[in-house]
Specification:
This protein is mainly alpha-helical and 280 residues long. The chain has helices spanning 3-15, 21-38, 64-71, 76-87, 92-96, 130-149, 161-164, 202-216, 224-237, 242-249, 254-257, 259-265; strands at residues 103-104, 109-112, 121-124, 187-188, 195-196. The protein has a 3-stranded antiparallel sheet with strand order 1-2-3. It is globular.
Length: 280
Amino acid sequence: MGAAEVNQFLTHLAVNENVAASTQNQALWALLFLYKEVLSQDIGDLGDVIRAKKPKRLPIVLTPEEVRLVLNQLSGISWLMINLLYGAGLRQMECLRLRVQDIDFSYNQIAVRSGKGDKDRLTMLPHVIKEPLRRHLDKVKKVHETDLSHGLGGVYLPDALEKKYPNAAKEWGWSRKIGMFPANELSIDPRSGKKRRHHEGEWVLQRLVREARVKAGLAKHISCHTFRHSFATHLLQAGYDIRTIQELLGHKDVKTTMIYTHVINQGGQGVRSPADLLIL
């Protein structure tokens, strides 16, 4: 098979099978990998493949009361992590990868390192979690010191920093992979072979959100990212300008942030239903 057959197959997926755009893309990248890495062949020009349409969906957003209901089902570390997703607008992995040195209690801000697109940005540190976070960091520091006393490999340093600063891996401020939310279990770092304590797995946070939603009795199907959507929407409703919210979210283009203006304009917010104008 060559480019013509691959084109025909991908078009078939979209036209006859009505697959989602993500499914067609997955098939495309799998075929490209097959030809390049396995068969060592140039697949050639695929021509004009009929692409599956990606549906335009508005993000699911919780009301402030619904956020409160979910948070009331949580405590301890779980409560802290979800509060960071909502209160600082963090993505799931941005939260899990936070380091101790990324939190600035004096300026009430969080430095998000290597976010989406490998960009750094600043966002706010919610006042409501400052003291609980301080107490949590005291516990994390003890875990870090205990690991070092047992001869573990310290923390993972990005790029070539471990060679440049050989003692930094054992310093408290460099806790990147231990970070704010260390995992309960130790693991072997495949890059160095050293035994380290990684940050919590993303599935842990996903499970917490799912269980809290059920306990809160919410009908909405929410995920970790729902709290980031809610963060942006609630800031807009509070009167903050779109450019400020764009910077806090780390969006490259303001058009991405503009979707939240569509959210607050949907469902009749600010528009009175004609049914309410009827005299019954």
